[in-house]
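Reminder to self: tokens first, then the designed residues, so the page reads top to bottom the way the pipeline ran.
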């Protein structure tokens, strides 16, 4: 059965010129569909890609990535069926980020954890009209859920405007929950690295419990080399490489023809981080520690 709406084919990567270290993880991607099995829970604000688990696996294999983190897309809301199906089929290769709110029973949160979920996603970014994305959950819910999250072992993943972090991060850290900031904390390249909001993020990164994902394509439109993002990337790596993760953001929703080649993104990361030990920390060690990958798990 075909989807009852128009879907788009995601851009598949070319093989990167530089090989990845064993255990490397793409720490930000999504699965969508097949829609006859996994229908969306909410109307999507973009043409959804047809990106089922098998295509995601092929993407990881092309990159040479042994592991991956799947993030629940907003149109699926709190329905984690597609996510859990992909995690179960991953043979220990995958972990997940789900969506839940304060009404979610603790036993349901535990079931998510048992299925491979290691974080819950919260969103403070708004649509162009200023409305929350359908299916997203805000930080207010995170603060209510913090005791249950701590007990189960779930951290938070947060997509928010950079100007929101000076207010949000103290609340989240006071609640005792570790937090990963999506998309390089949504830096504003036009402001430069001296932007007070970015400097706040750097200070937070140097402390405890705050992580940042290096997903270039969401902070710069100057593909394929993203020169305006380079100073921010360098500053984050210099601040604390032990709290950074690399992610492709495949299948690049809302990007259309501007979707990058994930293989080229990895080669750019290799060029920007010439120290192999630092690259390994970001690609292998950090996600292994945060998402609970173990050496005894054999990638499927």
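Designed residues (300 positions):
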């Amino acid at each position: 059965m075909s989807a009852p709406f128009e879907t788009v084919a995601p851009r598949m990567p070319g093989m990167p010129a530089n090989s990845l270290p064993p255990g490397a993880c793409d720490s930000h991607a999504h699965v969508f569909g097949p829609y006859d099995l996994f229908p969306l829970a909410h109307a999507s604000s973009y043409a959804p890609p047809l990106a089922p688990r098998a295509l995601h696996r092929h993407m990881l294999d092309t990159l040479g990535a042994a592991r991956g983190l799947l993030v629940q897309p907003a149109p699926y809301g709190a329905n984690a069926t597609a996510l859990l199906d992909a995690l179960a089929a991953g043979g220990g290769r995958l972990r997940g980020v789900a969506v839940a709110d304060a009404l979610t029973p603790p036993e349901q949160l535990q079931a998510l954890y048992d299925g491979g979920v290691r974080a819950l996603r919260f969103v403070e970014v708004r649509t162009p009209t200023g409305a929350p994305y359908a299916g997203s959950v805000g930080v207010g819910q995170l603060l209510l859920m913090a005791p249950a999250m701590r007990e189960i072992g779930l951290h938070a993943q947060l997509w928010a405007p950079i100007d929101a972090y000076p207010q949000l991060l103290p609340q989240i850290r006071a609640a005792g929950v570790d937090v990963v900031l999506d998309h390089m904390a949504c830096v504003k390249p036009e402001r430069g690295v001296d932007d007070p909001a970015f400097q706040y993020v750097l200070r937070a990164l140097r402390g405890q419990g705050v992580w940042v994902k290096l997903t270039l394509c969401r902070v710069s439109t100057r593909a394929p080399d993203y020169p305006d993002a380079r100073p921010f990337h360098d500053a984050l790596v210099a601040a604390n490489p032990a709290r950074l993760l690399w992610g492709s953001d495949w299948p690049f929703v809302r990007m259309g023809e501007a979707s990058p080649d994930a293989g080229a993104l990895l080669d750019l990361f290799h060029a920007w981080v010439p120290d192999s030990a630092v690259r390994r920390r970001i690609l292998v060690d950090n996600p292994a520690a945060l998402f609970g990958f173990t050496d005894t798990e054999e990638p499927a």
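The chain has one domain: 25-291.
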